[in-house]
Structure formats: structure tokens, C-alpha cells
Amino acid sequence: MSLSRSAIKELKTLDPPVRRLILDALEEVSTLDDPRVRGKALTGSWGGFWRYRVGNYRIICEINDSELRILAVKVAHRSKAYKN
What we know:
The protein is an alpha+beta fold. The chain is 27% helix and 31% strand. It has helices spanning 5-12, 16-30; strands at 2-3, 40-41, 50-54, 57-64, 69-77.
């Protein structure tokens, strides 16, 4: 599992307890054989990405099967998560 620069930047703006919840959720997803069982596929302009819910926050990820890699591209409050 890896984080994009923008996801790291967004994580740094969060309160430490919320940041810990999100990092724990990402760690849990990264240990799954198929990370798609926990997430939801996105559509529209976010097609090809997957969403994970952590309370009122959303983690938007790109899953690369050829490398078994999860790239978190965005971490944001649900009211802002899908805005470009």
C-alpha cells in the first residue's frame, strides 16, 4: 500500500485520532487477499477507482492487480471527497 503526495498532505491536515483511524483502515485493507470486497467501485469521472468509508471520511484508491498495490490518491471528508 502506498499514498500519493496529495493523500499524505491531506492526512497531515487531519486531527491525530482521525488520521490514526484512516491509517488503520488502510493497513487492514492492504492485508486482504482481495481489497475490493471491502470497498465500492466508483463511477463517472472517478471510474476505475475504489472508495473506502472510515466514519465521515472517504479514502479513494486505485488498485493495481499486476503489482498487488493499493494507491490511496485522496483522503477527505465525505462532503469534499468527490470534488476535483
